[in-house]
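Record format v2
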Amino acid sequence: MGAANGQARAAVVGTGLIGGSVLLRLRDAGLDVAGWDPDPATRRHAAERGVVVPDALEDAVAGRDVVFLCGPLPTLPATLTRVAGVTDDGCVLTDVGSTKADVATAATAQGLGHRFVPGHPMAGADRAGLAAASPTLLDGAAWVLCPAPTGMAAFRRLAALLIDVFHAQVVPMSAPEHDTAAALASHVPHLLAGALAGAVQRAALRDAVLALAAGSFTDGTRVAGGPPARTANMLLGNRERALAELGAVRNVLDELAEALAAGDAGALTARLDEARAARAALGARSYTTHRCEFPAEVEHAGELAYLRELGAAGGHLTGCRVEAGAVAYTAHLPVGPPLG
Amino acid sequence: MGAANGQARAAVVGTGLIGGSVLLRLRDAGLDVAGWDPDPATRRHAAERGVVVPDALEDAVAGRDVVFLCGPLPTLPATLTRVAGVTDDGCVLTDVGSTKADVATAATAQGLGHRFVPGHPMAGADRAGLAAASPTLLDGAAWVLCPAPTGMAAFRRLAALLIDVFHAQVVPMSAPEHDTAAALASHVPHLLAGALAGAVQRAALRDAVLALAAGSFTDGTRVAGGPPARTANMLLGNRERALAELGAVRNVLDELAEALAAGDAGALTARLDEARAARAALGARSYTTHRCEFPAEVEHAGELAYLRELGAAGGHLTGCRVEAGAVAYTAHLPVGPPLG
């Protein structure tokens, strides 16, 4: 990506909510960046917002140092093949899809493991499309990257760019662990919101329920307002893990319902107290900071293991520099035992 | 309550989050108001905030025109008996509990149906206690009141006070219909939030899930941060209806899970679209306004039926005036068919 990120040449393929936000931020950061979208109206809209948008995908990505693939989840494998074919072997490729295992497997099967780094920025909005995109949407976001054994150099370059331009908190994880965590962090919550809002839509007292809607309902159904097809794609892309984690949530729901049915205030309060511990840990996290260095010129197995353990433990990176033959990470780990 | 609400003498028994907020608002509105709480430290705290707080409950409520009972749900029937015994028969009593059928039945059994008006303001906070109370917490809130056949005069007086002082949107409902609607609007969402947060607390990747927590998770678990005992009391107070409505939500969740397991994008999208309709109706309600008058001096069956139908249809009152032998309501009804 050149001597500094300011000189990297980037492209964004698929300029909806996330891709458009990536594009606008890269542009505002002074990078040479081009966008492309299969929809001609979206390309015109992007051009009106002052972005370089060639008519042909190939013209947008050729000669770039990094390409963000931001189209819908089902289109990713085909787009990856197409973009890989017209970019240099040194061009880093990444995506922003909500699940990572399938696309990581597809990339490895295509021999792209050394330059494709699966990614997932944890941000979104109820609205979709370029009209809802903003250069600040991803500012400071937790941004998962999935380093592969053969792709450490690509990981480092991309992590450095995301930290520099987006002030990202880069969360390094294995693709399967990401998908398991994302099931609980995002996919199951979408199913619960859909079930709650769907049941109200069918209720005889629907309008009274909406009139009484307290914060618990308004908050708990917010993501049910998102585009159904986008949510369906996200869920289908992580089907097995979403269903498995939904099973775990159902188990706790069964325990709550049993305690309630039995009128057992003690058991009910104990279950709710357990839930509160997770919520308290979410709101009140503090972190310890450390630095960790590895030799830059060899594929060091310890580096990959270190990164994956950091992410699985809830940690993230805010620094990634290659200097004097070493890569130095600035990392943050959550402190202490679960809050009670 | 005197010729105008400004001259009504009020009392609040139980000065936690809701009761304290009622107390502070009545005081700020210029009413003669006294508070009382069983906890001496809370009484001292209330006195420090400039409120009249006698040591004895009887001294707080004697001679008052209206008394708000704001203690924990399980204490309400006993407090109702005690307060009714030391107030005039013309003193209007109300509560702010999250379920209404049981307390309404208890009041009728005690011969208080003519002056006890079950109430439920739809507002709250994660925090509890007087320290979290605020005179603005209930400003403009939807505030359910449950008029009884023998209690129309008390209902009118209380509705007028709430509209005048709190700018409340008074939602008149029968107590059982309130409890059914509240189950979906509040109680089931608390169960879902508890199940989601509880499952994360038990997850092997707990800290990674919290690191990835997207808006769907943060929003969907917010009320799991509330006091477990308070939430348990709320759920236990509406046990049968909460479990019944949880069953309705589970049915939709089963349909979503089946569509997901089958990889049926069409069915999954259709269910999510149904959910989105309820969410869209929540965000984009518009109302038609009308006035309705009834004779004030007789118990008019049409008045009660009109009010209950208004609330069941998602409507509310923003005006209630008794003048020249008639009661005039200003009412608002949501417009149009379900949004698709």
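Chain A has three domains: 5-173, 178-261, 285-340.
Residues 1-5 of chain A have pLDDT under 50 and may be disordered.
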